[in-house]
Design brief:
The chain has helices at residues 16-30, 49-55, 82-87, 98-103, 108-120, 133-137, 141-156, 181-198, 218-222, 239-250; strands at 5-9, 39-43, 61-65, 92-95, 124-129, 164-167, 207-210, 229-232. The chain is of the alpha/beta class and 251 residues long. Helix 1 links the parallel strand 1 (5-9) and strand 2. The longest helix has 18 residues, at 181-198. The structure holds 2-phosphoglycolic acid.
């Protein structure tokens, strides 16, 4: 069985002072988990990679980034390359988060290239997929998530078993409206089948659920057979809530 992966996503939140306090609190709380703890990662704003890299040394928390350029290097003002992330020992990088698809107009193809860049730098891309409310209501959930994942599978061939997938229904992100465990499990099973068809090593791939996962609903969601962890936004900002979610994954 895959051990669970709990990844936080601070989004555009944090400061030197609050990051410092957060890492101290989580580090302290994680001591209670001993060897049963799940894998834990925190995807932080690029500006804080260096700070958090130093703070988490020896803590068992892995460093994550929230985006990566689809280009290798050069005249792309404001972008951060996979090689630069690697310089800060980044282990995971979100690609195709719905906020970037929505506000930066990222396409499936761009997301697939970003996943490729991350993989070639030795960084695990956490590929985010998910349908909008309108798409769910139109009965298009499966079609949308399969299309989004297919682009990444197509561009990454045999490396596909090295990715992490995060199913994040857009209507559940930051809204307090979580997908029910059954709704989430149904989509995870579809994604799992798609990965099985793409690679014989699909059992390595973690499929995370994200979208208003919190301290009260995490245990139920994480108990589903195809939910291998969580991608947590709002609830990752409070150390106590994040620790409760880690504890739910440690069971
Ligand atoms: P949320 O965000 O937990 O605040 O809903 C999840 C995400 O966007 O990754």
């Amino acid at each position: 069985m895959r051990s669970k992966l709990i990844a936080g996503n601070w989004k555009m939140n944090g400061s030197l002072a609050t990051n410092d306090a957060w890492v101290r609190d989580v580090q302290l709380g994680m001591r209670a988990f001993h060897s049963q703890k799940p894998h834990v990662a925190m995807c932080v704003p690029a500006a804080y990679l260096s700070q958090v890299q130093q703070l988490i040394k020896g803590s068992g928390i892995d460093l994550g980034a929230q985006d990566v350029s689809a280009h290798e290097q050069g005249a792309y003002t404001g972008e951060v390359s996979a090689a630069m992330l690697k310089d800060f020992a980044v282990r995971y990088c979100l690609v195709g988060h719905s906020e970037r698809r929505q506000f930066q107009g990222e396409t499936d193809e761009q997301v697939a290239h970003k996943a490729q860049r991350a993989l070639s730098a030795g960084i695990t891309p956490i590929v985010c997929v998910g349908e909008t409310l309108a798409e769910r209501e139109a009965g298009k959930t499966q079609e949308v998530v399969k299309r989004q994942l297919a682009a990444v599978i197509h561009a990454n061939g045999h490396c596909i078993s090295e990715i992490v997938v995060a199913y994040e229904p857009v209507w559940a992100i930051g809204t307090g409206q979580t997908a029910s465990p059954a709704q989430a499990q149904a989509v995870h099973a579809v994604l799992r089948a798609q990965l099985n068809a793409a690679t014989s090593h699909s059992d390595r791939v973690h499929i995370l659920y994200g979208g208003s996962m919190n301290a009260s609903n995490a245990a139920e969601l994480l108990a589903q057979p195809d939910i291998d962890g969580g991608l947590i936004g709002g609830a990752s900002l409070k150390a106590a809530d994040f620790l409760t979610i880690i504890a739910a994954a440690a069971r």
